[in-house]
Design brief:
Homodimer. The chain is mainly α and 327 residues long. The protein has 13 helices and five strands. It binds adenosine-5'-tetraphosphate.
Length: 327
């Protein structure tokens, strides 16, 4: 069975972008693959986090995984910081990473531009992400479009290590959804929907109440036309809403275009909001049940146990190959 690994940062409330681009795929993959899904709290601290908020958000990510349908009996669900081997392999791989490679990362440029001070962790974070993946010898990594570049670096590092020290790491492949790999912001379709955006209206969180979802979608920026048509180049805002609609229904984009032919944006946005609410409401109900059950800590303990077993094996071999004295 092929192995899958992926994670989400507990750096804010998870968005519909995280759901469509990541979690939905996680749920599907658990039936056919050996899956490891984590909340990457060590990545979250590459930008400042309030300690209480970090704790709450970490627990929330895990509860959302389960509420969305990830079964802890099938997939290994854990917190990155519970498996110290990530930090250790992260350091080993940082020493193999070139500055020029990190400087080319567009996510670093996006997140650091205009900031007065930028932590070194934000810069070296792709090496830690490589460690996350290589520790488990993952074959497939479900990622949104924005993470593809980091995955390419992971492959380069794996190859570099294998060439220098002998075959050790599996080269992971990206697993990208066909539609929804990049859900864009509701206020600016040139930016991806991001949970840490300062504008609350730019994203829909998975825990937004129905009325908030309706309001955010009704206020979503469109264009001055009235044609519901998928054309990312000329109609990026409407195309983004169409992608969300398709992902929250069983309909194809072509079918949705046909449904709203000649009707303008009003009815389209109204029904889109209802489709999103219909996905979120049952998820939110399960989320609250899980939080109240107090089961999260047990699930995390179990998940960490399984993850550590695998991670420690890889780390040991890696250190031996690099010439560390391993006891
Ligand atoms: N807008 C998006 N469309 C499709 N997929 C997305 N993902 C994130 N945003 C979108 C996918 O979700 C997974 C987890 O992402 P992450 O939280 O670890 O990091 P991120 O990509 O930096 O997500 P955010 O929401 O933008 O977080 P912040 O604002 O904290 O940086 C990844 O697979 C990602 O592709």
């Amino acid at each position: 069975m092929k192995r899958v690994l992926s994670g989400i940062q507990p750096s804010g409330k998870l968005t519909l972008g995280n759901y469509i681009g990541a979690i939905k795929n996680f749920v599907a993959l658990q039936h056919t693959h050996d899956c490891y899904f984590m909340a990457v709290d060590m990545h979250a601290i590459t930008v400042p986090q309030e300690p209480e908020a970090l704790k709450e958000q970490s627990e929330s990510v895990i509860a959302l995984y389960i509420a969305a349908g990830i079964d802890p009996a099938k997939a290994t669900i854990f917190l990155q910081s519970h498996v110290h081997q990530h930090a250790e392999l992260g350091w080993l791989l940082t020493t193999l990473t070139y500055m020029g490679e990190l400087e080319r990362m567009t996510q670093f440029k996006d997140k650091s531009t205009g900031k007065e001070s930028v932590g070194a962790g934000l810069f070296t974070y792709p090496s830690l992400m490589a460690a996350d993946i290589l520790l488990y010898n993952a074959d497939l990594v479900p990622v949104g479009d924005d993470q593809k570049q980091h995955l390419e670096l992971t492959r380069d590092l794996a190859q570099r290590f294998n060439q220098r020290y002998g075959d050790t790491f599996t080269l992971p492949e990206p697993y990208m959804p066909k539609v929804g790999a990049r859900i864009m912001s509701l206020d600016d379709a040139s930016k991806k929907m991001s949970k840490s955006s300062p504008n609350q209206g730019s994203f829909i969180t998975l825990l937004d109440p129905p009325d908030v979802v309706r309001k955010k979608i009704s206020r979503a920026v469109t264009d001055s036309g009235r044609e519901v048509k998928y054309d990312p180049q000329h109609k990026p805002e409407v195309s983004n809403l169409l992608s969300i609609y398709a992902q929250c229904s069983d309909l194809t984009i072509a079918e949705i275009e046909l449904m709203y032919d000649g009707q303008g944006y009003g009815p389209f946005k109204k029904e889109l909001a209802e489709r999103v609410v219909a996905v979120l409401e049952p998820l939110q109900q399960r989320y609250h049940e899980i939080r109240e059950s107090g089961e999260i800590y047990n699930i995390l303990r179990q998940g960490a146990g399984r993850a550590i077993e695998q991670a420690e094996k890889t780390l040991r071999v890696t250190k031996e190959k690099m010439g560390f004295l391993v006891l």
